[in-house]
Structure formats: structure tokens, C-alpha cells
Design goal:
The chain has about 160 residues and is α+β, with helices and mostly antiparallel strands. The chain has a single domain (about 1-150), classed as Thiol Ester Dehydrase, Chain A (Roll), CATH 3.10.129.10. It is about 20% helix and about 35% strand. The protein contains four helices and seven strands. It has helices spanning about 30-40, 45-50, 50-55, 65-80, and strands spanning about 1-5, 20-25, 25-30, 85-100, 105-120, 125-135, 140-150. Strands 1, 2, 3, 4, 5, 6 and 7 form a seven-stranded mixed sheet that branches. The two termini are about 30 Å apart. This is MaoC family dehydratase. Belongs to the enoyl-CoA hydratase/isomerase family. Pfam families: MaoC_dehydratas. InterPro entries: HotDog_dom_sf (IPR029069), MaoC-like_dom (IPR002539), MCH/BMMD (IPR052342).
Length: about 160
């Protein structure tokens, strides 16, 4: 069952279940996003920043940085609102893959599935294993991977 969340909620570890799926809103990647990311990351590789060079390359145009896509994905997941009050710590990014290029004009969205949920050893928090799949406007998978999150348990 896919749940669409429109506003932040007071979710805690106990509100999540293995198999739960959430879908984010879309976000269109712009040329300004790519240029800005290149500027603050210092990654000015021509594959991202040179339209003339890129026209003759594999993709025929500049592509977004993979980490720009990942950053936007984390922002989209944050906008679901379900992790806002319970997040304690991002635990890691595992097996992240950049499967298809993202270019200016693409609209990306993320499907997040709770793949695992377990209490911490001391029982004071929970760990959510989250599978994220990022698609473009044509439902082509552009990125995917797992991002673990430690979350608060419901106060007694």
C-alpha cells in the first residue's frame, strides 16, 4: 500500500511497518540547480557544466551531478513529514546506484519502502532500513539505494 503524506505528522518508530511504501512529490531539476551545485561543490567537470563539450559526449547534454540527485532525494523524503519529529541520525547510505542520467528539465520523485525495522540494543530508539527508488517523469529509475535512519520511539 502506497501512502501519500501531505503534511507533517507526529510519527515515531512504532508507526512504521516493514513493507510500508511512501511516494514523494516531484521536483523538476533546473539548469540553475546544476550550476549552483557545481559552484558550491567545486565539481565543475565539463560533463555537468559545458554544453558544447557535453553535446558531443555520451549523453548529448550536460547531466546533473549524481550527488545533486541524492541531495534532492533526501529533501523530497524530508518533505513527506513523517521523519521530521522522530529522526535522530542518518546511519549510512548503502548500495547507492546512479542508474540513468538526470538532466535539466527532468522531474524526479522518490518511492521509499520500509525494508526493515528493529529496536536498538538499549530499546530507546529504532532503526529503519529504507529502500529508496528515484524515478524521472517517464518512470525510468535514475537512482536507488538504501538509507538507514535511527528514529525515536513513542514517549511513554
Amino acid at each position: 500500500m502506497t501512502q501519500e503524506m501531505g503534511s507533517p505528522a507526529d510519527w515515531f518508530f512504532e508507526d512504521f511497518a516493514v513493507g510500508q511504501t511512501f511516494r514523494t512529490q516531484g521536483r523538476t531539476i533546473t539548469e540553475a540547480d546544476i550550476v549552483s551545485f557545481a559552484g558550491w561543490s567545486w565539481d565543475t567537470n565539463p560533463v555537468h557544466t559545458d554544453a558544447v563539450h557535453s553535446a558531443d559526449g555520451r549523453f548529448g547534454q550536460p547531466i546533473a551531478h549524481g550527488l545533486l540527485g541524492l541531495s534532492v532525494t533526501l529533501g523530497l523524503v524530508s518533505r513527506l513529514g513523517i521523519f521530521e519529529r522522530c529522526s535522530i541520525a542518518l546511519l549510512g547510505i548503502d548500495g547507492w546506484r546512479f542508474e540513468h542520467p538526470v538532466v535539466a528539465g527532468d522531474t524526479v520523485r522518490c518511492t521509499l519502502r520500509i525494508a526493515g525495522a528493529r529496536a536498538t540494543r538499549n530499546g530507546k530508539a529504532g532503526i529503519l532500513d529504507r529502500e529508496l527508488t528515484v524515478t524521472n517523469q517517464d518512470d525510468v529509475v535514475v537512482q536507488r539505494g538504501n538509507i538507514g535512519l535511527m528514529v525515536a520511539r513513542r514517549p511513554s
